[in-house]
Design a protein that fits this description.
Blueprint: H1 5-9, H2 26-35, H3 47-60, E1 65-69, H4 72-83, E2 88-93, H5 97-100, H6 105-109, E3 114-118, H7 127-135, E4 144-151, H8 162-174, E5 178-183, H9 186-193, E6 208-212, E7 222-226, H10 235-241, H11 250-260, H12 264-284, E8 290-291, E9 299-303, H13 306-314, E10 328-331, H14 338-353
Parallel strand pairs: 2-3, 2-4, 4-5, 5-6
Antiparallel strand pairs: 1-7, 6-7, 8-9, 9-10
Helix pairs in contact: 2-11, 3-11, 9-12, 12-14, 13-14
Bound molecules: pyridoxal-5'-phosphate.
Length: 354
């Protein structure tokens, strides 16, 4: 059967479902192509992986230890497992990906570490509630709090300020907790805040970040970055045991070079953020549509009638409505164009006018 390559290259697909619906950005693609020139040692013992690690150290201005895994669920759960013993607990937001979207992997890989989830407005942890959860019990019958997990940018498309992260880091230190950051969309937070990556990670008390690649424009892959090197002890064995050690590692690591060395990760993130801003500004003006949380990164959460949402889906638009507190989630990416935004806005207008 003949394949219409034009159809493959230019599919009309009306979606704001997720930033992982996007393809591979040219810079990541090119870096993979460059790594695809002949033989190279396997399992990460190659020059591309070495250079990718160096790029991450440079981006964070730190002598951190870096591991590459296939996805965010593995990055988060293996990182948390490295920070905890089985009788410990992890404190996170009630909407945190580790709690709601990882199918129990953090508990599984840590052999039973309990996730304690805490509420907080706009997807951010309420630090008073965190402190209460830490001090509530100190007896032997309660799973001992050991890690504070923060998502930056959050599951509701908001961004913790440097001060907020610093305060969270201090709180964690005061009670002997470690800090893990789910940075699946960390680039969007850096671009939104205009600060250095170091400022909102290790300088603010973060011990380990799970740095997102896929949603930022790569094909596959997240990096687990330990600022506290002691915590990375034997982490390579966890990766291997969990089936997360790529034999052709260079194709997982090389794209990071393409993303980081020319600043593409932040360019992609800034673009996605801008598209979300434009979308939020337009949706806000449509009668019957209400923004549910401030648009600070690359997500827009909008409330509309069930009939309007159904009409939008019937018109062929893909978006999620199960994330966070409900409503329609519109997610932009490096690949989203202003034309995509305009088409969605017109479709929402038509759907709400019915
Ligand atoms: C997408 C995402 C991840 C990673 O998910 P995988 O599908 O396992 O790669 C982690 N955290 C957050 C907040 C995410 O949105």
């Amino acid at each position: 059967m003949a394949i219409d390559t034009n159809e493959i290259r230019h599919p009309v697909f009306n979606q704001f479902a997720s930033d992982n619906y996007a393809g591979i950005c040219p810079e990541a693609w090119q870096a993979m192509d460059e790594a695809n020139r002949g033989f190279a040692p396997s399992y990460g013992d190659d020059v591309w992986t070495e250079r990718a690690c160096a790029s991450i150290r440079e981006a964070f201005e730190a002598d951190c230890q870096v591991f590459f895994v296939f996805n965010g669920t593995a990055a988060n759960s293996l990182a948390l497992a490295a920070l905890c013993r089985s009788y410990h607990s992890v404190i996170c937001h009630e909407l945190a990906h580790v709690e709601t979207d990882e199918c129990g992997a953090p508990e599984f890989f840590s052999n039973g570490t309990k996730i304690l989830h805490i509420p907080g407005p706009a997807g951010k942890l309420d630090l008073e509630a965190v402190e209460q959860a830490i001090v509530r019990r100190s007896d032997i019958h309660y799973p001992k709090p050991r890690v504070l997990s923060l998502t930056q940018s959050t599951e509701l498309g908001t961004v913790y300020t440097p001060d907020e992260i610093g305060t969270a880091g201090e709180l964690a230190r005061r009670y002997g907790l470690r800090v893990q950051m789910d940075g699946a969309r960390f680039a969007n937070a850096v671009a939104a805040l205009g600060v250095s990556p170091a400022t909102i990670t290790w300088k603010a008390g973060v011990d380990v970040i799970c740095l997102g690649g896929a949603k930022n424009g790569m094909a596959i892959g997240e990096a687990v970055v330990f600022f506290n090197r002691e915590l990375a002890d034997e982490f390579e064995y966890r990766c291997k045991q969990a089936g997360q050690l790529a034999s052709k590692m260079r194709f997982i690591s090389a794209p990071w070079i393409g993303m980081l060395e020319g600043g593409t990760w932040l360019k992609n993130a800034a673009h996605a953020n801008r598209m979300a801003q434009v979308l939020a500004g337009e949706l806000e003006r449509i009668p019957g549509v209400r923004l549910m949380s401030p648009c600070q990164a690359n997500a827009v959460f909008a409330e509309m009638s069930a009939a309007a949402a159904a009409a939008l889906r019937a018109a062929g638009w893909h978006f999620y409505s199960f994330i966070g507190t409900g409503g329609a989630r519109f997610m932009s990416s490096w690949q989203t164009t202003e034309e995509d935004v305009n088409r969605l806005v017109a479709a929402v207008r038509a759907a709400t006018a019915q």
